[in-house]
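Handout, tutorial session.
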Amino acid sequence: AAPTLDVSLATLAAEIFTFVSLSSALQENIVIEDPNGGVSSGAREEELGESSFALMRQLLLGSGALFLRTLILQGCLAAAAALAASGGAEQAAAHQVLSQLYLLASFAFDALAVAASSLVADARGRSLAGAATEDGDGTPRDVASRCTGWGIAIGGAASALCAVPPVASAVTGLLCADAGVAARVAEVFPLLALSLPLQAVAFIGDGVFNGFEAFEAQFRAMGGAAAVGVAIVLFEATQGGHGSLQEGLLALDLKEIWMGLLGLQLARVVGVAAW
């Protein structure tokens, strides 16, 4: 219990430090630009107060859609973990290792999504104001396409790196002390590597959705992708000649579970491309 408590306290301390640091930075640096020149921190409070309801509605709409999108994605990941655990401790441990690598990549690509959201929103603002973008060319859609292209390149490079056998072996050996778990991870590792470009495009697509304020489209894309992932898993569960669907689900191996997650990411990419 002691190591678990230590990790929990360290995580809590890191979150508190992050909160204090960000709060201080926001308080010191957020200002309101005065259209007549200079900067004012309170001269337009009355003007801003008149539009506070509209701003709050927009905030709730965007954050609500993002919350539902995250809830659907986390629900799929939790269901995958439950299915993996039904296959025994070794399979559950292998799935945990793969999930941590999956989440690490997700956080990295989510940083690209934040950048894409800012770039697209900036391009939209300049377009609405009749000003050119900073690079001199490109509509907001062009900016979104360039961000997606960079996502494909970065995700593809990461995928190619993970496909190199020595790299895959080194990562697996670093995270797995048990030979049986390491062998199970190695079986599914190619699927994880294959998912990296899809993850990059999917997360950057979320950033593009946010930049365009297309919150409902973002929610629909995630919902459709989750349905595809669930359908793949259900189909696989019916192929083993089991007596019932429940028995088929409990008998899924790790590769079949990750095929469902791969299908989810592919469907997210299709949703972004269709939009």
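The second record follows below. Compare its token runs with those of the first.
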Amino acid sequence: LICIESDAPVSKALQLMKEHGLLSLFVTKNEQFTGIVSIYDIMTFVAFGAFRVDGTVTYTALDTPAGDIAGTHEETRQVWCYEAAEPISATMEALSKGVHRVLVKLHDKGPDGRALYKVVTQTDIIAHLSRHAGEHKASGCDPDVTKDLEELQLYKEGSTVLTVPSTCTALEAFRRLEVRDHTCMPIVDEKGAVITQISASDLRGLEEYDLPKLTTNVLEYLRFRRGGRLTHPVTCAKHTTLEDAMLKIAAAKVHQVWIVDSAEKPIG
């Protein structure tokens, strides 16, 4: 587990997340778990707390203790923990409610005799199910992964997908994510076609001197964060089978796949 002391600054949390490719850290105080701080928590804090009303930057915002913003969202207000011997199905209650990761207490102890833990994510579960799709099909159990997303009602005609226009600033985009309670949204062009996506994870590794970049165009900001290029998000069609959609998620190690139409407009 990668942990952070509750009094460590937000800037350190952002660096740890970048270094280890993480979206959350477990917060400790006196070597005890006190909560979780996620990149989504930090995104909300930065988007609304690092800028004054007149739009100027509060450069000291990233000095705020990470423990102070842990639990900003419901997902990080509780640490879900399971014993290693419990079945995978035991984690489904939490993971189906929007919780992205849970703790699993391992059988073994550390050298100091303390309990060892491992993080299991939604993506880990989907990857496991994808690897065992053949066994699932042979069992005849629901859902039938050979059916497409529309057949399984994972897509419904007329669904509305919240998007970010490519003309807005990065700060406006992050604020939209928070106001709409989303961790990620597709960015679309003037015709509504997907260009790329923005998520809270695009703040990982942010330094205080980078804060003014948030007031620039969202695509310019993302190019800055992604080494000068824009990455196309993982997409599929409404007639993609559940098995193929799961495979896409597992292969790309993402939390969602956008359903698009023939014009590349997000529809689910």
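Points raised in discussion: The first helix runs from residue 10 to 20.
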